[in-house]
Write a structure and sequence with these properties.
Number of helices: 10
Radius of gyration: 24 Å
Structural class: alpha/beta
Order of helices and strands: HHEEEHHEEEHHHHHH
Helix content: 40-55%
Mean pLDDT: 84
């Protein structure tokens, strides 16, 4: 494969770049430093062990790198972390699945009573590159720190299972705006391949090491080839994602236009305000039936396209199945 046009530094959000920066004992100080910033003082990792240097769970998805780690905190406590540079599909459900596996795998083969569910803490860290948090709406948070809590008052119910999502598309600070090391890490993750060197805002030993190992000119020929393939895969995935988003946008606009037109027509025919409401609902029902028949969209996507609730789409799906 011919070499692609390269910048001075590799893109560490590619599969290859992510594994090179964070996936070995030699560079685990980089990963520890990054993770400690994500925990923002809640945990301080002193050491970590790669249980499986890199694995892909039970999937064969392109664009998914997973590190399964056992961490030791500065107070001696041990807990499990799974770090992912992951693809977008079924993001929330995938993370729940992976966290469930990390918990279930702790159970002994026998003598469960003696074990008494002594489950270690489990955290899932997700680096989201190039796409937004599903169902985030207009929120512009770049860090989502999630745990189990009571729905009514927000008090934490269980603090030993957590999810941290890093949404890089929402991190827009310039180098002069970086105020702490978390900012610096996210800035580097997002912009490394477009930088020509360390600015004065990044002059720290941990970042100097990261920039040294990320220099493209220092890669061996076989490493360059692997990186080029990984970079092309990332570009291809971004192109596909962009195309899908454009198709979804067009489908949403078309569905809304058809729903409004059919709803307004039925409402006018009724000649009453309540007829207009009913007409719009019936118009949207027809659009939803068409989207269901296309087999191209999930229930949640159809709900978003038609600007209705998931429950309403499920109701139409049931009626459609009954032949109504």
């Amino acid at each position: 494969m011919s070499e692609l046009k390269q910048s001075k530094y590799i893109d560490i959000t590619t599969d290859y770049g992510f594994k090179k920066a964070f996936g070995s004992d030699t560079n685990k100080d980089l990963l520890i430093a990054f993770l400690n910033e994500l925990f923002r003082g809640r945990k301080v990792i002193a050491d970590l062990y790669y249980n499986k240097n890199e694995h892909v769970g039970d999937t064969e998805d392109i664009g998914t790198v997973i590190f399964d780690l056992t961490c030791t905190a500065d107070n001696g406590e041990r807990f499990i972390i799974e770090v992912q540079r992951t693809a977008q599909d079924n993001l929330k459900k995938r993370m729940l699945y992976y966290s469930s596996k990390l918990i279930a795998d702790q159970a002994p083969k026998g003598n469960r009573r003696a074990w008494n569910y002594a489950i270690s803490e489990v955290y899932i860290i997700v680096l989201m590159d190039g796409f937004a948090m599903p169902d985030a709406g207009d929120e512009q948070y770049f860090l989502h720190d999630i745990c189990l809590c009571y729905r009514d008052h927000g008090k934490i119910f269980y603090d030993d299972l957590g999810f941290i999502y890093v949404e890089l598309v929402n991190f827009v600070k310039a180098d002069a705006e970086l105020v702490n090391d978390l900012d610096r890490w996210l800035y580097v993750l997002k912009n490394m391949s477009s930088l020509n060197g360390l600015s004065t805002y990044l002059r720290k030993p941990i970042f100097e090491k990261l920039f040294q190992l990320a220099e493209y000119s220092k890669l061996k020929p076989e490493e360059r080839e692997m990186y080029n393939v990984s970079l092309k895969n990332k570009w291809d995935a971004e192109s596909i994602r962009s195309s899908q988003e454009e198709l979804l946008k067009r489908a949403r606009e078309k569905a809304m236009a058809e729903g409004r037109a059919e709803g307004e027509a039925k409402g006018k025919a009724e000649g009453k305000a309540e007829g207009e409401v009913i007409g719009k609902a019936e118009g949207k029902a027809e659009v939803i039936k068409n989207l269901l028949s296309s087999n191209k969209f999930s229930i949640s996507e159809i709900a978003e396209l038609a600007d209705v609730t998931v429950e309403f789409v499920k109701q139409i799906e049931e009626e459609k199945a009954k032949g109504k």
